[in-house]
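Why run this: before we spend reagent on co-expression, it is cheaper to look at a predicted model of the complex and decide which construct boundaries make sense. The entries below are exactly what would go into the expression plan.
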Amino acid sequence: MSPGRAVRDRITVAIAVLAAWQLGTLVFGAHWVSPPLATGQRLLQLLANGELRRHTEFTLAAAVGGFLVGGVPGALIPFALRRASRLAAILDPYFVAGYGMPKLALAPLFILWFGIGLASKVALVGSIVFFLILFATAAGVRGADRRLVAMARVAGASEQMVARHVVWPGAVPYIFAGLKISLSYAIGAAVVGEMISSNRGLGYLIQAASQDFDTTTVFAGLVALTVLIVVVNELVQTAERWLLRWRPVDAQPEGRLVTVA
Amino acid sequence: MSGAAPLLEVRGLGKRFEARAGRAEAFWAIRDLSFSVADREFLTIVGPSGSGKSTLLNLIAQIDSTTEGEVRFRDQLIASPTAGTLRPGWDRQFGYVTQDDTLLPWRTLLENVLFPLRVQNRLSTDMRERAAGLLHAVGLEGFERHYPHELSGGMRKRAALIRTLVYDPPVILMDEPFGALDAQTRTQLQEDLLRLWNLGRKTIVFVTHDIAEAIALGDRTLVFTRAPAHVHSEHAIPLARPRDVASIYTVDGFADLHAAIRKELA
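The model came back. Tokens follow.
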């Protein structure tokens, strides 16, 4: 399919979605399903008075902060454990248990510990991202090509150099797979944290509006959230394409979740 | 070849692979294997596939541990069951060109060739010039910025070969490096190898299952038995150098040697 054609067809789909949305409004009433036009107007309003920016910044800060707090150690620990197989074997069941634990259940605890501000959301996001990135990176480190590792050692590479020049580049695709999965979880966790207890953030905006029966703001918040996720996803994909530019074109990371050949 | 102390000596070497899930029994890949290699000798080893030839090179290169016997280099014990931690490449004394080209897919051709120098912290202008010279010698100039997947199989093999030559290890182990190539590319690469070897004679241990290749390249060839591998016989190859690989079949003495080795392998 040509790119121009794809864009045209996507616009057609967008119009269809808006039409279905409008139909929902007509069937269920504007009180329950805020019409697209009113939602758009509310978005512009929130944009103009700075509210949208204030809430989005908070949510984004929680997500990014959590990503750093959880993702960086998650990506580093498998490298540290690479040459310590005994320690890795000891820790493994604990990592599995931590991974399996539903982190959203920790939200009340984090709010008790860190208050209703940003810190508790960062902790919640971090606890989720940590395990996702940890397991993705561990798979990448485990999957390091043994032949390449042996070649590098024979050529005189130290363990750090093997890690840096052979294991790390090989693990990058895995880490990105983990990153992309973590992304929606991270923003989701930030929003849930805000819904439970906060005075800022898109989650708070949506929660507060729903308590006022202000469906239009709820819809505006959801649209903003979706846009945020799409934009962040696009940034991650750009970074991935750049880091994996050495790959053959037909093995380039696919930007879409569902692709029909 | 006799007389001078050997550069590399393999004595009573054995390697046993333990039983693992999915592979019923432990087995000996190599047993009672002894031979020696003189300085600057081009030794070729032929044997049936699965006869432990790659295992032997892995033991010498110290990628894998020894079960029995020993390997000595310059009269120093480098591998034995009790030798302790493996030291792959024995401090850059052994270069290893494997069956697969093992180029780093995320590095360009030039970066791959320079890789050993980079990790050895020896990247200098001189060394870069040396690399450029080698790239030229095997006809790879102009492809420096290509990634491995953009190169043909023959080009990748050449790159792997000069990546080892570039840091000048005294001994080069080669494990069927030209195995997966078409006949013409293969002959070309064999000629490249002989030419480069002639420029700065290294000690080469070259494993193959192709009898003609073993004769065309080597000063001497060892015939291995099936696993557990040991030396079945040894043949000096008195063919004059420089050799023309493409027409080696027509040289006096080739046919007899080929027939003799062939019979031993049957």
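The interface with chain A takes residues 61-63, 88-89, 91-92, 94-96, 98, 100, 102, 104-107, 115-116, 118-120, 147, 149-150, 163-164, 167 of chain B (CB under 8 Å). The longest strand of chain B covers residues 27-37. Bring this page to Monday's planning discussion.
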